[in-house]
TrEMBL record:
The entry's keywords: Signal
Leader sequence residues: 1-18
Name of the featured protein: Alpha/beta hydrolase
Chain spans, region Disordered: 23-42
Taxonomy, superkingdom: Bacteria
PROSITE patterns: PROKAR_LIPOPROTEIN
Signal keyword on record: yes
Signal as UniProt keyword: yes
InterPro entries membership: AB_hydrolase_fold
Amino acid sequence: MQFTRPMVLSLFAAAALAACGGGDDDDNTPEETRLQDSRNSFVPAEPSATTFAALQAAPGDAVDNATTSRWAGVLNGAAYRVEVPANWNGRLVMYAHGYAGEGNALNVSNPSIRRYLVQNGYAWAASSYSKNFYDVRAGVEDTNALALAFNNIATANGRTLPVPTRMYITGHSMGGHITAAAIEEEALEEANHKVRYHGAVPMCGVVGDTELFDYFAGAQVAAQALAGVPNNPFTGWAAVRDQVTNTLFTSFPGTPTATGAKFMSVVENLTGGDRPLFELGVAFGGSFSPVWGVFGGDGTVNGILNKSSLDTTRFTYTIAGDPTGSAALNAAAQKLTATPDANRERRDGLRWIPKANGEIGIPVVSLHTLGDLYVPFSMEQIYKRRVVAEGNDRWLVQRAIRGISHCDFTVAEQVEAFAAMVQWEQGGAKPAGDDVLTAATVAAPTYGCTFTRDTLGPDDSNTTQQLRGVIAQSGATCPQP
């Protein structure tokens, strides 16, 4: 990754460490490059923007949203937005957006809880990142660089501000991965731009990092085996896609055949086990279609790595109620093994796909929907096990939300999680969460009801309203507090 690394003019005394190089390895041999390093045509979608639109007023707003300071610009090739209320409370929230595809235009996303932040005195900042594709390393570095530049940006725009007393980070999907990776001990040691955050809220995040791509691979080899083409080359998915699809679905993705029902049983176990709303997630299909679309990759995550990180050897494929069929499937499915050191630590900064190892020491409150089949609920189970293995369970709270698609949260659910994290970080009791590991608990019909809030507000999208409407029509809603 070819980052530009200008000296950061403002160092945060308590909130951040000075920006510096990567590891302490004395080896001066240049690091290898990869395809992503040669992709240099990314440009901000609005390179001349100096501000952005004020938040529209809504009933109940306590302050005038138009009085905030709103600055836009470009930092190290990445576009950014920064918003500071007139009554700033001294706290800065960094927002990390999700996967933005493979186009050249770099776009900034406002946080979904923007209204809550502005109305409660929080400043926020968001980067477009300097590259698209699944480049979590760029996401961490560019988000951190923007955090470090916050005071300079304010000063350059005529507003002198004190150093933030607290810095928090939150993000969705790939941004949830960025959030989880940015608070790791490894990031504090190896990032080129080092920031010590005080709390984090990863949402629908890839908090199992490369294990997400293992899930995609496991689903593909299981689908091929059940469709009768187990030995078709893994990267040759295009040649059998239609055959597999027609064997497993009468209508893709929501109506499986009898064989397809066995496959979806396998997918249920790969994505977190028996749990409410999985069937609705399948029937709706919104988060499963993208899974079908990423099959057949070479394991480099489209040029982010040079070698394959895919490993399916730990999977045991289970068809509920069919031990004979399960045994036959496990015998037939291809086994993929990762190339050693495909995602090794590097001497020039973070790994190409930064890890969420569970080495955390700050309050973390995460959210995940139960029906998400693209970045599935099993990500939370993987993250929980890693955090527990590192002895850091006291810092993690996880909440299951009864949504049926990817990042299918209401704003109220996200606000509650963020507010709970801040109250905890400010000395309050550790907030309540959900047990994500006990199978009987996860399978209970009311699982996820505790933190699901179906009340819709002015910032909930039409998609969110539609998805919650699907749940309501199914009768799977929960009593609201």
